[in-house]
Amino acid sequence: MSTSAAKGAPESPAVRAEALREQLHHHAHRYYVLDEPEITDADYDRLFQELQAIEAAHPELLTPDSPTQRILGKVLDGFTVVRHAMPMLSIRTETDTEATGAIAFDARMRRELQLGETDPPIEYAAELKFDGLAINLRYEQGVLVQAATRGNGEAGEDVTQNIRTIAQIPLRLRFLTSVRAELVEAPAGPELAEGAELVEAPPVIEIRGEVYMRRDDFESLNERQRELIAQGRKNEKTFVNPRNAAAGAVRQLDPAIAAKRPLSFFAYGLGDVQGWEIPPSHSAVLDAIAAMGVPVSPDREVVQGAEGLVAFHRSMGAKRDSLPFDIDGVVYKVNARELQKKLGFVSREPRWAVAHKYPAQEQTTVLKGIEVQVGRTGKLTPVAKLEPVFVGGTTVSNATLHNQGEIERKDVRIGDTVIVRRAGDVIPEVVGVVADKRPADAEPFDLYQRLGGKCPVCGSDVERAEGEADWRCSGGLFCPAQRKQAMLHFAGRRAMDIEGLGDKLVEQLVDSGLIRTLPEVYKLGVAKLSVLERMADKSAQNLIAGLEKSKHTTLARFLFALGIRQVGESTARDLARHFGRLERIIEASEAQLLEVNDVGPIVAHSIRTFFDQPHNVEVVEQLRACGITWAEDEGTADSSPRPLLGKTLVLTGTLPTLTRDEAKDMIEAAGGKVAGSVSKKTHYVVAGEAAGSKLDKANELGVTVLDEEGLKALLAGD
Ligand code: IVH
After folding, report:
1. 84, 88, 91: which to mutate for ligand 1, most atoms within 8 A of CB?
2. Atom 16 of ligand 1: nearest residue by CA position
3. Which of 219, 300, 323, 635 has its CB surrounded by the most CB atoms within 10 Å?
């Protein structure tokens, strides 16, 4: 990568612009694809603005792949049709969701390849089946020149303008002399080793993959849409699922609107290629694509035979709910391209690939009744009572209807057959009605009337602010339902993660009057707790230990735990990343808050309003006085032990009890850093089952390798 010239050496605008483009491409890849930024957002903005200024002064220096060109062109009348240089195929689907689907595929492949029982197992590339829409990215001389939808497979629509707004998709590929030789492992696949050289990119490389929307992005998009509808914007709508929302965004004629819909991308193959030698296996193709700077899912494996496929199907099935995006199955591909050629095609489908499905995330069932629940901020949510239905891998009998407005917009009536969606750890929801199955006696529902204007828990008046979608209980923390929810949210796994403080206990603590405010949670002692019925000494000790442990947290978790309206996990992370310190967030003006990625006026206003209430700032201070600390304020934090301060760890393989997220959180809470690849600077590699090349690398470099037990000992300061 070029760097700025030495002081004093005059640098032409052309040279400086190219250097800035290189740096911005590099940092955008670190940030959006690898999720491991090396510089602050502010430094990135400075480089960006410098480039913008040069381009404004010297328009002849503007290149189509300049990072400044992610900004938007004009509204389109319609999309131009483009013929694909190579048809975009589909894959055969194995509908059998049991392991037998994988066994049948392997048996078919062995038959087709005329392999006998004594022949070795076939090698497969196993990957996820992303639930979005297929896109072909055409790069000429390494520069993105066209993006097209699949269409009918022969010809699709030119959606280049909209695809260019997806930050994860590079406008320019990184190209290397020898892709294999100069790679090191990183979370999103191999990346350029230090000192490796960039060379001229080949004339044509088409990369194919799926544009999708993450579930959290989908949830916040729909949340925003519901607000807009409540404010009277009649032509806005909510989306049924992330795929639907992603497809709508890609085919949106106004690129400015498309840009506001948060989209992501994973590559899964190639299209037309000219002047580049394609690696000999599918897995190597994906490694090479990742090395070019295009996102490739890390959840892929090279496996042997039916056994390997079955294991992959099972392990991804177990992981499905915790992935941040929807998948509807896994895909198996014969890995060797030579064997793929031998197997060939049947009509429009390659014989060498198959999609193996998981249970559907949408089902229909009957709506038997509607109940009203009081949430953390007093929000009154109509909850559908359903005829139990198996959806997204579990049986669902309750689903959210969101609010009265949504009930009316979707025209949901009691007795209707409704469509229920359950994906990941998102609360199941009613997304629509099957109109032609409506019985004659289906009954409309009106929330306000049903409640007689009073909160069903505390009897306070219910109210709805101008332009808001939701009715709320006006009782505030006087309402026991609100107090309990606020506490549960605070203690939750994704927030302060207080072990031992669950539903039942919060219920008792609030009902007995032992706790009225959040900081009081940290003042619970065994003596206080022993007042509670059924509270054994042991559970009291456990809770106290849980409280102690929760005090080492991160700024993002703490912010999320406060339960500020509109501040979900990802906004909390963005705020923490942007401001670095809590004091700066507390003091930030709405204008400063708006500078944060994804923070709009509603969110900014809500944050400002929260910290404008003196009692909220007081709660924050009291909590910190209880000993809550995080890494960002090393200088001022108390003397709590930080056994991993200054240490860099790398995680690989599956640990016996901890998820990757949990291990990472624990390491960070202890002051350590988690890196994506092993180098001489790595202090420890934590390896679990099926650890891959990172473990080999650790051994090669003599880096200490730990198992989960070893990590825990380290965290405990042993
Ligand atoms: S490969 C030659 N791999 O599923 C094979 N497709 O019918 C071409 N999809 O429209 C497709 N995840 O949009 C492939 N890992 C994956 C995929 C995947 C999702 C979609 C793709 C295509 C459809 C296949």
Report:
1. 91
2. 129
3. 300
The closest alpha carbon to 558, from 479, 482, 639, 637, belongs to 637
For residues 217, 220, 223, 229, the Cα torsion angle rounded to the nearest 10 degrees is: -70
DSSP string, 413-439: -BT-EEEEE--TTSPPEEEEE-GGG--
Minimum mean pLDDT range among 187-191, 228-232, 430-434: 187-191
Is residue 76 classed exposed, middle or buried when 0-12, 13-18 and 19+ CB atoms within 10 A define those classes?
Answer: middle
Report pLDDT digits (tens) over 17-32. Answer: 999 998 998 888 887 7
**Distance (Å, whole) CA 524 – CA 512:** 13
Q: How far is the CA of 128 from the centre of ligand 1 (A)?
A: 9
343 lines ligand 1 (CB under 6 A): no
> Per residue in 422-451, pLDDT tens?
988 778 999 999 988 999 999 999 999 999
* Weakest-pLDDT range from 25-39, 416-430, 630-644, 661-675: 630-644
User: Phi and psi of 702, rounded to 5°?
Assistant: 75, 25
Enumerate the H helices of 132-186 as residue ranges: 160-163
597, two tokens? 């990625």
Q: Catalytic: 129?
A: yes
Determine if ligand 1 sits within 6 Å of the CB of residue 330: no
Name residue, tokens 């590099």: 26
Distance from the alpha carbon of residue 462 to the mean position of ligand 1, in angstroms? 49
Is residue 13 scored above 50 in pLDDT?
yes
CA angle 607, 609, 615 (to 5 degrees): 105
Q: How many angstroms is it from 91 CA to the middle of ligand 1? A: 6
Could you tell me how many residues make up the chain? Answer: 718
Beta bridge partners of 643: none
Looking at the DSSP bridge assignments, the partners of residue 133 are 211
**Ligand 1 contact, 350 CB (< 6 A):** yes
> Which atom belonging to ligand 1 lies closest to the Cα atom of 269?
1
Token pair 């790679």 is found at 183
Q: Report the distance separating Cα 145 and Cα 224, nearest Å.
A: 33
User: Pocket of ligand 1, candidates 92, 124, 129: which has the most ligand atoms within 8 Å of its Cβ, to mutate?
Assistant: 129
Q: Is the CB of 90 under 6 A from ligand 1?
A: yes
- Is residue 137 in contact with ligand 1, taking CB distance under 6 Å? no
Q: Is the pTM of this model over 0.85?
A: no
Ligand 1 binding pocket includes 268 (Cβ within 6 Å): yes
165: CA distance to ligand 1 center in Å? Answer: 23
Q: Active-site residue among 129, 333, 379, 410?
A: 129
Per-residue tokens: 220: 């916040």
pLDDT tens digits, one per residue of 697-711: 888 888 899 999 999
Residue 181 has pLDDT above 50, yes or no: no
Contact indicator for 473, 458 with CB cutoff of 8 Å: yes
Q: What is the 3-state secondary structure (H, E, C) of 22-46?
A: HHHHHHHHHHHHCCCCCCCHHHHHH
CA triplet 403, 407, 408: central angle to 5 degrees?
120
Question: Kind of pairing, strands 301-304 and 204-212?
Answer: unpaired
Consecutive H or E run containing 590: helix 590-594
